[in-house]
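B., you asked whether I could sanity-check this one before it goes into the benchmark set. Here's the sequence:
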Amino acid sequence: MNVPANRKKIMIALFVATFLAAIEGTIVSTAMPSITGELQGISQYSWIISLYLLTAAISTPVYGKLSDLYGRKKLFMIGAAIFLAGSMLSGLAQSMPQLMAFRVLQGLGAGALTTIPYTIIGDLYSFEQRAKIQGWLSSIWGVAGISGPLLGGLLVDYVSWRAIFYMNVPFGIVALYLLYTSLHEAYERKKRHIDYPGILTFAAGMFCFLYALALLRDEAGTGVAAGLVSGLLVAAAVLLTLFARIERRSPEPFIPFELFRSRLIRLVNLNSLLLCVINVVVIFYLPLWLQGVYGKSATFSGLAMIPLSIAWPLGSILAGNWIARQGIRAISVFGACLLLAGGAGFAFLDASTSIWLLCLYIFLAGMAFGLCLTSVTVAVSSAVGWEQRGAAIASNNFIRTFGQTLGITAFGLLLRTGGENELDAAKLEASLHTIFAGIAILSVFVIIVSWRLPALVQAERQEGSGGAEGRAT
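And here's what the prediction gave me:
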C-alpha cells in the first residue's frame, strides 16, 4: 500500500501515542511494590491504577465528541499535552496523594490517545486501507501487553520507578510534532454549542458508578464499603437519568442518542461489551490458575501468557487484511468461534491438564480478540459520517473499558481463595471453573451477536471512496 509521506508521519505519531497509552495500563503494575515502598502508601496500592483507568474511561467520549466539533488535531494535541504533563508530574510525586492526583491528570489526557487515533484513520483512509491500518493499530495493545511488564521491571531494577513516567515525555513530544506538522484538517468553522451540562452529569454519574464497582471489587464484605457502594449507585442512577434528559433537549448532544438507532452500532457495542468482559477475565484469572492451581511461579505464569500477546496482534493484522474481502460478519463469527473453543478449553481445565494444551487455548483466545475487536473498530468507524465518527468511536471505546470494569467486578465476586492469609487450591480451582464456564457461555452470545452483523463490504467500499478522505490530509 503506497502511503504519502505526510501520512506516514501521521501514522508514526498515532502509533507512538497509542503505544504510550496502551503500555501505561501494564507498565505501572510492575513498579507498584517499589512505588508504595518509597512513598509509604501500601493501602492505596490499587487506586494508583484504578484512578487512571476511571478518568481515562470517562474522558474518552468527551474527546470523541469535542473532536467532532473542533477537529481531531486540536483535541489530540490538547489531550496529549495533558497526558504528558500528568506523566512528568507523576514522576516527580513525593507522596501517594500527589501521585494519585497526577495519575488522574494523566488519565484525563489518555482518553484522547485511546480514541482519536482511530477517528483520524477513519477520516484519512478508504475502507480497505482503513481496515489494514486499524488492524495494525489494534495490534499495539498486544505488543504493549508483552513489553509493559518487562520494560517496567527493567526500569525499576536498573533506573528508577520514576523513569516509567518520564519515558513518555520524549516520545510524546515527537508524536505531537509529527502530527502538528503533517495533519491538515478542513472542517467547517462556525460557532459551536458545547453541551457542558451533559458532559458534567455524565462524568459525575459514570465516576460514581465505576467507583462503586471498584470498591465492590476491592473491599467487598465490609459494612462501610457496602453502604458507600449503595450511595454511589443511587447517585449514579440519579445523575445518569438527568444526563439522559439533558441529551434529549440539547441542540448538540454530548452523546447523540441517534447513534444507537443504528442496528450496526447497537450490535457492535454489545459485542464490544461481551468481548471485553471475557478479555479481562482471561488476562486476570489465567495467571491465578497457573500460580494457585498449577503451583507455578509468577515468572512462569507471565511466560505462559505470551501466546495471548502474540496471537492478539496477529489476529488484528489478519483481520485488517481480510475484512475488505470477507466482510465484517464473517471475520467476527470466525473469531467468536475461536473464542468459544478457547473458552470451552478453559472451562474443562484441571490440575493435570498439559501446560502446552493450556497455551493452545490461550493462543486461540488471543487470536479471537484480535479478529473480533479489530472488526468492531472498523465497523464503528465506517457506520457514521465525519460529523459523528469521533463520538461513535469514543462511545465504543468507553463501552470496552466499562466491559472490563464490569467483568473484573462481577466475576471477582465468584472467586474463592480460601482463608485470608492462606490459599486453598481446591476452593480456588472450583471457583475458577465456574468463572471459566461463564466466559464460555458468554462466547456463545458473541457468536450470536456476530452472526447478526450485516456484511457491509460493498457499502464500506462506497463510503470509503466517497467522503472518508475529504476532511483531512
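One thing to flag: Residues 457-470 have pLDDT under 50 and may be disordered. Otherwise nothing jumped out at me.
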